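Q: What changes when iron/sulfur cluster is included in the input?
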Amino acid sequence: MTDFGFKLSKSATLDLDKADTGLYERLCSLEPDARICMNCGSCSATCTAAPFSGMSLRKVILGLQRGQDVRPMLQGCMLCGKCSMVCPRGINTRHLLLTLCRIYD
Ligand code: SF4
Ligand code: SF4
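A: The predicted holo structure follows.
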């Protein structure tokens, strides 16, 4: 094959129609507040575990909406509840995270 000095990468486009959002829907049925998250990132910005574990509640919720496996990120959460104090939507994020952990158990 001719080397043109560059290569084509696989598309990173997500086909949301094919995403398995079953887990997200289950979370929303138990924690309806999950639907009002606007992915602002305030929770992630104040997360105690973020600098050490890469935990990001914003990415967790976004990942669930995209049908991705967020379990590895979830393991970094210490359930300290700091994020619930800054959420502009008033979501009880700690409870939401606890419910999500229980779903995965
Ligand atoms: S409860 Fe979890 S996500 Fe929220 S601030 Fe604490 S470690 Fe971060
Ligand atoms: S702070 Fe609240 S609204 Fe913003 S991303 Fe986190 S959970 Fe969603």
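Observations recorded in class: Residues 1 and 65 are 40 Å apart (CA to CA).
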